[in-house]
Amino acid sequence: MKLESEIQKLSNTVFALKTTDIRVYPENYGDLSMNAALRAERIACQMRNLVCLAAPKKRSDYLQEAADAQGIEICQNEDLISITLPGLLPKRKQHVNAAFLHEPLNYALQNYLAVHSLPLYRECVVCFSQVYEQDGPFDRIRDYDNLEFKQLLDTIATYIMVDDTGLYCDSYHTTEIADRDATVIYVMGKSTFPKWLQERKNKIKSISEIP
After folding, report:
1. 107, pLDDT greater than 60
2. Looking at the 3D structure of the chain, how many domains does it have?
3. How far apart are CA 161 and CA 120, in angstroms?
4. Cα(37)–Cα(83) distance, rounded to whole angstroms?
5. Which domain holds residue 16?
6. How far apart are CA 188 and CA 140, in angstroms?
7. How far is it, in rounded angstroms, from Cα 160 to Cα 141?
8. Burial, 159: exposed, middle or buried (Cβ in 10 Å; 0-12, 13-18, 19+)?
9. Distance (Å, rounded) from C-alpha 13 to C-alpha 32?
10. CA triplet 95, 132, 76: central angle to 5 degrees?
11. Which CATH number is 67's domain given?
12. Same domain, 50 and 139
């Protein structure tokens, strides 16, 4: 069974992680940890499909719990919306099933809108912030071009944007250092962006500040 094979490979990769010295082989450790995380995402998607096939009526309950388990957070402050996702976005070239993220995100947005109102932006700026744990090896920091942004943007745009084409939506990418890995997506009106960016630069810890 393919699922059993994936689980066995994940177990082998986790064992390899335990026996790899991150100080001596930081690049190998980074590659192994990324491999383990992506394989775990594939397993989660396969298990999710099994749940939905066996009990289709429980799909919404499952997605709610998946969103909670992943720690998806949606916050709103006047003209600014922030969406926090667990960990880092996968690389496009690794062909990971992004449903692992965008299905629970879609459900989280639906639930949020059931209680709160969200603006519908005609023109906006979307900022994708890749947040890296400060104790991790920095050679794992990746190019923005290689990350899977499109499906997540499509999901978000359905709820808060008139159109996500370049005519109406500007994009901005940044890398930050914090206590844990995460991806934070900020959406705001274009007039809000300059002030937000300046305040953000004054507060966050950037790569250049790490000794």
Report:
1. yes
2. 2
3. 5
4. 21
5. 1-54
6. 29
7. 30
8. middle
9. 7
10. 90
11. 3.30.1330.70
12. no
Name the token pair of 67.
């969103």
Q: Among candidates 130, 137, 126, which has minimal Cα distance to 192?
A: 126
Domain match, 164 and 181 both: yes
Looking at the fold, whether 29 and 76 belong to one and the same domain comes out as: no
**Residue 181 and residue 92 in one domain:** yes
**Tell me: the pLDDT tens digits for 33-89?**
877 776 776 677 666 666 656 666 566 666 666 666 667 889 998 899 999 987 666
The strand pairing partners of 48, in sequence order, are none
Q: What's the pLDDT tens digit per position in 152-201?
A: 888 899 999 988 888 889 989 888 887 878 889 999 999 999 999 988 87
Which of the pair, 131 or 58, is modelled with greater confidence? 131
User: Letter for the amino acid at 97?
Assistant: N
Residue 127 tokens read as: 């900022």
Residue 211 scores a pLDDT above 50:
no
Q: What DSSP line would sit under the chain, residue for residue?
A: -HHHHHHHHHHHHHHHHHTS-TTT-HHHHHHHHHHHHHHHHHHHHHHHHHHHHH-GGGHHHHHHHHHHHHT-EEEEETTEEEEEEES-PPBGGGT--THHHHHHHHHHHHHHHHHS----BSSEEEEEEEEEETTS-GGG---GGGB--HHHHHHHHHHHBS--STTTEEEEEEEEEESS-EEEEEEEETTTHHHHHHHHHHHSBPGGG--
